[in-house]
Amino acid sequence: MTVAPYRPEPATARRRGGVLRVVAPTDAAPLDPSCAPASAAPFVRLHTRQLVTWQTARDVRDWQAVTSVPDLALEVPSTWNAGLGASHRSYVFHMRPGVRWDTPDRRPVTAHDVVRGFKRMCNPVRPSPSLAYFASTVRGLADFATAWAAEATHRAGDAATLAAYQNAHEIPGVFALDDETLVIELARPALDFVHMLALPAASAVPVEHDAFVPGSPEAAAHLRANGPYRVRRHRPGEWVELVRNPAWEPAADPYRRAEADRVELRLSDGAGRADAEPTDAPAEVPVAPAVGGLPAAEPVDGDGALGWALDPYLLLNLRDPVWADPRVRQAVALAVDKAAVADLYRRHRPGVPVRIAGSLIPPGNAGHDTADPYPTGDPARARELLASAGHADGTPLVLIHPHSGLGPEVAHACASDLTRAGLPTRAVGLADAAYTEALRAPATAGGWQLAVAARVPDWLEHNGRVFAQAMLQATPVPGGANHGGYAAPEVDALIERALDAPEPWRADAAWRAAAERAVADVAVVPILHRAPVAAPRRPDRVDGIAPLPPQGYAVDLTAARPGVDE
User: Fold this and answer.
1) Using an 8 Å Cβ cutoff, are 179 and 112 in contact?
2) Which of 18, 233, 258, 331 is 20 to 30 Å from 543 at the Cα level?
3) What is the DSSP letter of 59?
């Protein structure tokens, strides 16, 4: 399905101001950028800035819509402006003047603040979910993160101890020449490195944040902003209120605005609750949950769009001995009736294209392939495999799922399919924050064997790593989406080959091969590929809705304009 290019609505009877309400899953809107996943980028964008960012798109099919643009940096380094060395491993960034922290003295944002942000993403208490990307790319960052994690095993995790280690050690490949000049050196050239710099993990961080443990409520309560908004107050897990940042200068920020006087993030735990204080602002913008997308979302040029999602898929906790025999894993892949899940999506999300998935990497992403080693819905063959493996019915498998979106419906459908095939399965719903924590620490999460999950690409160009590396690579560095603990030397070697590839076509071939091997191993069970979707262009009483394609086609909340009568 194809939709018309985005064109902003005229605001003939509107003016700047008002209160914008945003309804979002609890775990989608963490405030501390050092710990925020890529999915939180639309929220982090309200109060933080990175070296590069994305611009909103009038036509989401325009190649410029997926090209990063300079933010804290004056220019994106290239060989043309002498910011990128001939080896394509050394990047020099010159900081944009006029960007200031929301501190009493309105101190300028410097290259040293960006260095601090890179260090803080490696913190051992709550490392960034994007850490694996940077650890495999930036010179010395993996060793820095690993050494800090080892040090933390026999030292306290308080803010003072963390800050002392952070400030006494350096990342060899990230350093400031002076306040205005930053150098980042790579371990190898990377086709997608500039795109990675737009992730929340790469945000500049002020020295004031050293006083707080990353990701803690105290850190969120004392954030210093350099974006158009600052946090005025919040109740963890329930709501966040942001107001305009007086230290922010529009002239020093080409790609953000501050249309609303106030932004309220109302957070839902995924179980139908969105607790918050009363407000006088009826304007709301919904944000998609992890599984299933938005009920009223619009497809974005479905067949030809970049950035299709793997939504949903089944994740296997391979640390559990029940999966030791590959035939048991193969039975899972054969038992799931993917066509029935596709019908479920079509009923609840009409108009949003979905395709039955056989491959890990969806269409519109680097390394996509159409191969499907396990046809959908063959319970008889699944029972044969279980019998040949000598698998006997025992304690039901635990299939966890988020309460939000279509998570419950998908989980119960899959649990029924598995039970019919001879793998008794019990679906267990979790609030979004608890679900995310269970995925982060499966060995201590109550013994789940399966999980319903979804993955949306973190950027759109040269992005094979956002699926294959994040979901499959065995790495000692925390982060990524390899929540099932999959480890295969052959797949790791293919991932390294893709990361080392100088040409996109060579990288794509390696990503494709890695994904094919992992699906054959049943590291995960792809169920559907979903076309990218964007929030409705005119939610109730909100103008200025513009998508950010590389951020999952999310709304640029800085440009959203609540209805205010003249």
Assistant:
1) yes
2) 233
3) S
**What is the dihedral angle through the alpha carbons of 337, 340, 341, 344, rounded to the nearest 10 degrees?**
-170
**Per-residue pLDDT, 539:** 58
User: Nearest 5°: CA angle at 83, between 172 and 100?
Assistant: 75
d(CA 52, CA 72): 7
Beta-carbon count within 10 A of 238 CB:
17
On whether the CB atoms of residues 515 and 369 are closer than 8 A, the answer is: yes
Q: Which amino acid is residue 476, in one-letter code?
A: P
**499 or 267: which leads in pLDDT:** 499
Confirm whether pTM is higher than 0.70: yes
Amino acid 536: pLDDT: 66
Angle between helices 326-335 and 407-420 (to 10 degrees): 120
- E-only strand ranges, 490-546: 524-526, 528-530, 533-534, 542-543
Give me 103's structure tokens.
């501190």
Token pair for residue 342? 């596709």
Average pLDDT over residues 496-504: 93
Q: Which of 562, 564, 557 is nearest to 45 (CA)?
A: 557
Confidence check: pLDDT of 21 > 90: no
Token digits of residue 488: 């295969």
Q: Which of 195, 189, 196, 221 is nearest to 208 (CA)?
A: 221
Assess whether pLDDT exceeds 70 at residue 8.
no
Q: What is the pLDDT of residue 27?
A: 62
- Of 461, 503, 21, 532, the closest CA to residue 279 belongs to 21
Confidence of residue 470 (pLDDT cuts 50, 70, 90): very high
What token pair was written down for 224? 């210093």
Task: Tell me whether the omega of the peptide bond preceding residue 424 falls within 30 degrees of 0, making it cis.
Answer: no
3-state secondary structure of 266: strand
CA distances from 522 to 38, 160, 360, 472 (A): 26, 44, 10, 11
d(CA 499, CA 189): 8
**Phi and psi based region of residue 480 (left: phi greater than 0; alpha: psi -120 to 50; beta: remaining):** left
pLDDT of 2: 30
What ranges make up the beta strands (E) of 217-303?
229-235, 239-244, 262-268, 284-286, 298-299
Quick one: residue 150, left, alpha or beta (phi over 0 = left, psi -120 to 50 = alpha)? alpha
Confidence of residue 488 (pLDDT cuts 50, 70, 90): very high
Q: Which residue has the higher pLDDT, 279 or 3?
A: 279
Looking at residue 278, its pLDDT comes to: 36
Please, which residues have CB within 8 angstroms of residue 325's CB and are 6 or more apart in sequence? 389, 391
The band of 289, judged by pLDDT with boundaries at 50, 70 and 90, is: low
Contact status, residue 59 vs residue 244, Cβ threshold 8 Å: no
- Choose among 192, 193, 247, 240: nearest CA to 224: 247
Residues 482 and 355: their CA atoms lie apart, in Å, by 24
Kindly report each contact of residues 493-498 with a partner whose C-beta sits within 8 Å and lies 24 or more positions away, as own/partner: 494/468, 495/465, 495/468, 495/469, 498/367, 498/464, 498/465, 498/468, 498/469
Instruction: Count Cα neighbours of 293 within 13 Å in the Cβ-side half-sphere.
Output: 34
For the ranges 282-291, 320-329, 539-548, the lowest mean pLDDT is seen at 282-291
